[in-house]
Write a structure and sequence with these properties.
The chain is an alpha/beta fold and 416 residues long. The protein has two domains: 65-78 and 85-189 and 327-402, 3-Layer(aba) Sandwich (Rossmann fold), CATH 3.40.50; 192-321, 3-Layer(aba) Sandwich (Rossmann fold), CATH 3.40.50. Helix content is 34%, strand content 16%. The chain has eleven helices and 16 strands. The chain has helices at 15-29, 89-109, 126-133, 136-139, 150-158, 191-206, 222-236, 274-287, 309-314, 330-343, 349-367; strands at 65-70, 116-121, 143-145, 167-169, 184-186, 210-215, 241-246, 265-269, 293-297, 317-321, 380-381, 386-387, 389-391, 397-399, 403-408, 411-414. The strands form three sheets. Strands 2-1-3-4-5-14-13 form a seven-stranded mixed beta sheet. A seven-stranded mixed beta sheet has the order 7-6-8-9-10-15-16, sandwiched between helices. It has a two-stranded antiparallel ribbon with strand order 11-12. Helix 3 packs parallel to helix 5 and helix 6 runs parallel beside helix 7 (222-236). The longest helix is centred in the N-terminal third of the chain and has 21 residues, at 89-109. It is elongated and about 105 Å long.
Length: 416
């Protein structure tokens, strides 16, 4: 038997494809493994605290305090059953002024202002002035009005050290140089400003060559004459001559050679003595028949009932005033009606002054306390006068407004 060797088949070159296909099939059948997705942690939101309401603290509104020092003299009034109206005359000034002043503050309060009014009795003497100057309530006031009389003001000022606030002199025309206090506010123009106003009017409106001054011989007239002479010399640069004559028993003969028959002869008479004025003005009236006369008198002549309007008109008399009320004016009548309604009384002279001053001072207080440092920028036109202040070197503020009046149709009328 013959045996024959069997031969193996040789492998093909495509053998690698078989393995690749097998791997693919196996891969397709095996389960797919995916990475586990972890949740992304959320960032916690920041909690916003609730808004806190900030309530601003209420700033207290300052209420201006006014201390009013008047001479009621309550400890001197007779309240017995035998008392009459004359016993109360000393308190009339204080009551009138107080009621006018209060009515002014009430009028401002009706418009939204607010004040605290403190009223004190000066008793009309210096000792009470010393006491009030040490009163803490008075010292802590925003302004102090009063005392009224010069003696009381001097005593008050002497004890009022270390106070830097307005001190009002409401009714006295005394020169502020007597007090020498830079905080003082003098509302009634002193006599020297009347003299200055007359000199100014003579220079501006008449510009004469000379002025005649008739004197009685009383030294008190120098309070008018000295400032008049200074003013006329200053304004005219000494071109207007001032000729003085002390008149005795109405004798004016010494002046005759110097008088003019064609132009006005200017006379200034600063006297207030009734006997002197009666005789001297009669002599001027006689002189006026030949020599034209224009007369300038003392402001107190307004209250001299013995001076006849017809005589003063013939002499073309001019009189200065700082407190003349026009009772025909609309505003004056409004005030009178309001005063009657409030107090069931007729207002007197001091009630009108109290109203004007109270309204002016109250208006400044309600606006700004700093206005008291610049009163020259805060004018006022009241019922009895205008307020035009100037600052003095060491005597505070002074109202300088003085009006000039002339007799026409037998009554005084303003000429400016």
């Amino acid at each position: 038997m013959i045996s024959v060797r069997s031969h193996r088949l040789q492998s093909s070159g495509n053998k690698w494809i078989v393995f690749a296909l097998a791997g693919f099939i196996l891969g397709a059948c095996s389960p797919k493994i995916r990475p586990t997705e972890r949740p992304v942690p959320k960032t916690p939101e920041a909690k916003v605290p609730p808004a806190v309401k900030v309530i601003p603290k209420a700033v207290p509104v300052h209420t201006p305090v006014v201390s009013l020092i008047l001479p009621f003299e309550l400890d001197k009034i007779d309240f017995t059953s035998t008392a009459n109206r004359n016993n109360l005359s000393k308190a009339d000034l204080a009551v009138d002024y107080y009621q006018g002043f209060k009515l002014a503050l009430d009028s401002l309060a009706a418009k939204g202002a607010n004040f605290k009014l403190q009223v004190y009795d000066s008793n009309g003497d210096g000792s009470q002035g010393h006491s009030l100057a040490g009163n803490p309530k008075v010292r802590n006031s925003d302004i102090i009005v009063g005392p009224v009389f010069p003696e009381g003001m001097k005593a008050f000022m002497a004890s009022l050290s270390g106070i830097n606030k307005p001190i009002i002199s409401p009714l006295s025309p005394a020169s502020p140089l007597e007090f020498k206090n830079s905080n003082l506010v003098t509302i009634i123009p002193p006599l020297e400003y009347h003299a200055w106003r007359v000199a100014q009017y003579i220079k501006q409106e008449m510009d004469p060559v000379k002025v005649f001054v008739l004197r009685s011989g009383f030294s008190d007239e120098n309070k008018y004459l000295i400032p008049f002479r200074k003013a006329i010399d200053s304004l005219s640069k000494k071109r207007i001559r001032v000729i003085y004559l002390t008149v005795s028993k109405g004798n004016l003969d010494a002046l005759l050679p110097q008088l003019s028959t064609t132009s006005e002869n200017i006379f200034v008479v600063p006297a207030t003595d009734q006997a002197f004025l009666t005789v001297t003005l009669a002599a001027l009236d006689k002189l006026n028949q030949t020599y034209p006369v224009t007369l300038f008198g003392h402001p107190n002549w307004l209250k001299a009932s013995y001076l006849q309007a017809s005589l003063l008109q013939r002499l073309k008399t001019h009189i200065t005033s700082s407190d003349r009320v026009d009772y025909r004016a609309v505003e004056t009548n409004k005030f009178i009606k309001a005063y009657r309604k409030a107090f069931h009384l007729e207002p007197g002279e001091y009630a009108i002054k109290g109203f004007d001053e109270g309204y002016y001072l109250g208006s400044l207080l309600s606006a700004n306390n700093d206005l008291f440092k610049q009163l020259d920028k805060s004018g006022y036109e009241g019922l009895h006068n205008q307020f035009t202040f100037v600052k003095t070197a060491n005597a505070g503020w002074v109202n300088t407004h003085v009006s000039i009046y002339q007799y026409q149709n037998f009554e005084l009328k303003p000429i400016e």
